[in-house]
Amino acid sequence: MFLTKEQQKMLDGEHGHAIAKLTHLIVKIGEVNGATRLIPIKNAQIAGVSYLTVGEPIFSFFNMLSEDNVKVSVPSWLNPAGMDMKKWKEMGIKNDFAEKQRRIIQQYQEMGIQTTLTCTPYLIGHKPKFGDHLAWSESSAVSIANAYYGARTNREGGPSSLASAIIGFTADYGLHKKENRVPRIVVDVKATINHFSDFSALGYWYGEKFHGIIPYFKSIKSANIDQVKMLGAAMAASGSVAHFHIAKHTPEAEKVDLSHISETVTFDESDKKQIYSHFNQIKERVNLVVIGCPHSSLEDVKLIDSSLGDKSIKEGIKFWVFSSQKLMQNDEAKKLLTNLEEKGVKIFADTCMVVSPVVRENYKNILTNSAKAAFYLTRDGTNKVSLLSLSEIIEGVSE
Length: 399
Prior knowledge:
By secondary structure, the protein is an alpha/beta fold. The protein folds into 3 domains: 5-178, 2-Layer Sandwich (Aconitase, domain 3); 182-275, Aconitase, Domain 2 (3-Layer(aba) Sandwich); 279-397, Aconitase, domain 3 (2-Layer Sandwich). The chain is built from 16 helices and 14 strands.
């Protein structure tokens, strides 16, 4: 790999032991993937935040970094933590977990990272620009950055995204290169795709069948950011698909090279029904509803409020919505939160049902409109989950 003089100095330890280790990590990742150079990044989105997922080893990693007092060199923000940083007791988080989670957040803060604690940074003002090179790590955020905004990022791990945030570079391979962003499969969407859960079912179906292969969707009539984030999140969860194109909707779709298409497949009503049937697992009383995987937008929250109307959530059922702290701080959002709280809906920020321990531990029968959430919550067999549209969920749990 060719390195500039400054990059070589970083690798050789002239900027400290920690910088050398981080540069070595990025160089080795690049060499394994055939990269011939490092490229500068505009910003980074860093996973590895919830104590549930990183555990005690994260503190050893932080100790190594703190020896040289390293700071990020580009704008950087964090993925969700394992709890709402303000309402963690209300969630049922234990004191020991909360203490360790706060330590993790503090360590990231000391490196200059913005503690956004969301998987949807693009909803709170951090929209990437077309062609920007990034080092993003949360799977759904990666797919949206690539597909919806036309930016360029591989799906980074927590350590590699942090390393890139600090040294300011990533390796030039994978989805950073134009030739690797072309679709291989055309998906003709024949099924009716109206609800967010329909987009999620489509994404889950594709990812499960065509792992890691970039698709080109056609016949999708509407594709706003909230619909596309459900599609991309489910594909990333079930099949590690980090990029996709939607005819007439995504920025690269009209000019992308289609000469590499190897087959055309159809997604019809029977395929959609099969995904809903797969996640139709609850045979007993529902304990919990979880919405916000990926994190809910303000429009999502408005839809929940309008769908409930004058109804309230039935006694004995908890209805949790996950979003970002920043998104919930404007005046309109605060009014919505007050109204929804009165109807039995709880809005939690900074975390989600996937990376918080309390959902798996305390609730066994869960409804959601997210195939990504359903996938992760059922992987170890602890929980039963049913995938439904938001309107179906509200009809069943309100009165």
